[in-house]
Amino acid sequence: MKSQKIETIRKRYHREWLLIAIDKMDEKRTIPLTGRLLAHTPHRDEIYTKSSRYRGHALVVYSEDGFPKGYAAAF
Amino acid sequence: MFILRMVFQKVTLLLSNMDKQSLQKIILREGIVSVYVDFKGPITSRTLKMALDTGATYTMIPLEIAQDIGYDPASIKKRSEISTASGLILVPLITVSEVKALGLGLRNIDVICHSLPSESPVEGLLGLNFLIHLPAFIEFYQKIHSHI
After folding, report:
1. Is B125 exposed, middle or buried (0-12, 13-18, 19+ CB in 10 A)?
2. Is B38–A30 a contact, with Cβ atoms under 8 angstroms apart?
3. Exposed end of chain B (fewer CB within 10 Å): N or C?
4. Could you report the predicted ipTM of this complex, rounded to two decimals?
5. What residue of B is the nearest CA neighbor of A66?
6. Which among B123, B128, B129 has a CA at the least distance from the CA of B109?
7. Where are the domains of chain B?
8. Residues of B with CB below 8 A from A13's CB?
9. Domain-located, residue A75
């Protein structure tokens, strides 16, 4: 599978959890730059199951950066 | 961390120091400040999006991710009590070989194993035990310290 920019992969999915094999990291800023999509699902538990079977360096990330509309975090 | 259903769709903070011209309006569009954090264990590495949390003593990752990188939280005797939406719970406290974020790498960092609510767009919290090593956080703390 072709390596793609992480943000390009994330933009392709709406409210899904993604497992991405990391090909290139910006080590100075600790930002994954490129990778290959291994799995995507709306359910977080399913992405953990897929992640447990992959032994390489991977990114586990949600496709969105923010909360759903109308939600917020409190500590 | 609690996930709240908000009445309003945008959270607006007004920072005022009594000077009208210096009023700054900040719209927290995403509702969270998140960064990539890399965790290296005895088996492999995982990179996660985490919330910067100056209110958390420890950094926190899901139990499943701790297992992926090579730890067995169930067998760890070291535990920490944390306050959650459902009350106080005891959670495993593991020591991760290497944690990297914002260009800073630290070895042997204590990390709590616990999942955030499923509505959360991030998988964990980057807490004070990491942030206190960041030059930007040290500067931030020194600037607010005189007001504490």
Report:
1. buried
2. yes
3. C
4. 0.94
5. B30
6. B129
7. 33-145
8. none
9. no
Among candidates B31, B32, B13, which has minimal Cα distance to B23?
B13
Total number of residues shown for chain B: 148
In this prediction the pTM is 0.85
Indicate yes or no: CB of B32 within 8 angstroms of CB of A44. Answer: no
Q: Are B50 and B125 in contact (CB under 8 A)?
A: yes
Give dist(CA A22, CA B17) in Å, integer. Answer: 45
Does some domain include residue A71? no
Tens digits of residue pLDDT in B21-79: 443 343 355 678 899 999 999 999 999 999 999 989 999 999 999 999 999 998 988 88
Q: A42 lies in which domain range? A: 4-62
Q: CATH homologous superfamily for B33-145?
A: Acid Proteases (2.40.70.10)
Q: CA-to-CA distance for B1 and B83, rounded, in angstroms?
A: 9
Is B30 in Cβ contact with A70 (below 8 Å)? no
Q: How far apart are CA B113 and CA B67, in angstroms?
A: 10
CA distances from A24 to A17, B46, B105 (A): 20, 13, 17
